[in-house]
Amino acid sequence: MRRSYPIVALIFLTFFVISFLTNIIGPLVPEIIEDFDLSLTLVALLPFAFFIAYGVMSIPAGILIEKYQEKPVMVAAFCVATVGSLVLALFPNYLAAIFSLFLIGSGMAMLQVAINPLLREAGGEGHYAFNATVAQLIFGLASFFSPLVYSYLVINLQDVTAESNILITILSRLVPENLHWISLYWLFAVISILMVIVMIVIKIPKVERKEEERAGALATHLELLKNPVVILFFLGIFAYVGTEQGVANWISEFLSKYHGYDPQTTGARAVSWFWGLMTAGGVLGIIMLKLLDSKVVLVGFTIGTMLSLTAALFFSGPVALVAFPLVGFFSAVMYPVIFSLALNSVKEHHGSFSGILVTAIVGGAVIPLIIGGLGDLFGLRNGMLFLYITLAYILSIGIWAQPLIKNVTIEFGKKNVAGIE
């Protein structure tokens, strides 16, 4: 497949929708705890249900893509997300929430497996780190908007009048009076249906992959899992997603518990700015990846993340309101850089390797659950100290990674560039 900018644009749109549906759990945590009367451990089972789906669905999704190509799988993924959204919208209770989030997570896992190798092919392998960082920027932008949409909906649904717009009027008839946040899942269902239509209408060319791009059979995955490099990068994605969700899911509850901030307004805005500054960090990351080796960028941004987390956990409320979003800013390049370093560190079976790496997104299930369990035992602040372990591992990747293909960088004063196109 030749480089295709329309396909790259479609992938970026898909990243936006994935993020909009995925990263709303954090702002909802305080309300879910109150409405369903949950402990920190029980509420942590909600993101666990979402992200465990990546562990269940990622490798099967890679096999399905190999058999049926990307488009049918992407259509099916959004159909699954639609059903998941409707389950919680129609049956707003704790068990339905767990099942709903598992279905939505399954759909998102299928999409992630499809679009990451597709982005590498459509955008050019030498530009993969750059394009993946642009995708992360878009990912952060969508996550910036979703908490703001949540605040808008719950605040306006609390005071519905004759002058309320048609969206608020319709949602007020659909959601329970004391569970206004459920309105988000009606919105998610509509978005997923629209994406099904988009995927059906838009022509996605058949990807004629090289042998090393194919998602192979079980034997191929088992062969890859015998490679220590594969395991090390699997742990890298596991650590990153666990860190990201371990911060984002607990920001609002932390600010409410330790500093008394309102989760529907101040807490939601803090989560929004976490993702918003991740977008800004993505812009800086794009520039840095054109100037420096991606390993150097990863080390520098990880150190910034650790310093910001320290300020967020141990300084005053006003400092925490700034420091938590800065964690998002500095973590912006981690996922795309680790993913690109991984794919560019093996010679073959990139499709299967991508499925294994996306499976590692299950870290987003495990790490927040660990934090919740530790939080119930020792307090949420102490539970979040676990994040220093995952960040230390991410920092180490910038030291030991040895990619076969380096990211393309500008060499001033020379006509050519580093890396392989």
What's the SSE blueprint?
Elements: H1 5-22, H2 25-36, H3 40-68, H4 70-90, H5 94-123, H6 128-157, H7 166-174, H8 183-201, H9 218-225, H10 228-248, H11 251-259, H12 263-291, H13 294-314, H14 317-330, H15 334-343, H16 350-359, H17 363-378, H18 380-383, H19 387-400
Question: What can you see in these coordinates?
Answer:
This protein is mainly alpha-helical. It has one domain (5-400): Growth Hormone, Chain: A, CATH 1.20.1250.20. It is built from 19 helices and no strands. It has helices at 5-22, 25-36, 40-68, 70-90, 94-123, 128-157, 166-174, 183-201, 218-225, 228-248, 251-259, 263-291, 294-314, 317-330, 334-343, 350-359, 363-378, 380-383, 387-400. Helix 2 packs across helix 3 (40-68) and helix 10 crosses helix 17 (363-378). The radius of gyration is 21 Å and the shape is globular. It starts with a helix and ends in a 21-residue tail after the last helix. 56% of the residues are buried.
Shape: globular
Which CATH-level-2 architecture? Up-down Bundle
Number of domains: 1
Order of helices and strands: HHHHHHHHHHHHHHHHHHH
Averaged pLDDT, please?
85
Low-confidence stretches: 414-421
Would you give the CATH topology?
Answer: Growth Hormone, Chain: A
The CATH superfamily title: MFS general substrate transporter like domains
Give the oligomeric state. single chain
CATH class, anyone?
Mainly Alpha
State the distance separating the first and last CA atoms.
Answer: 14 Å
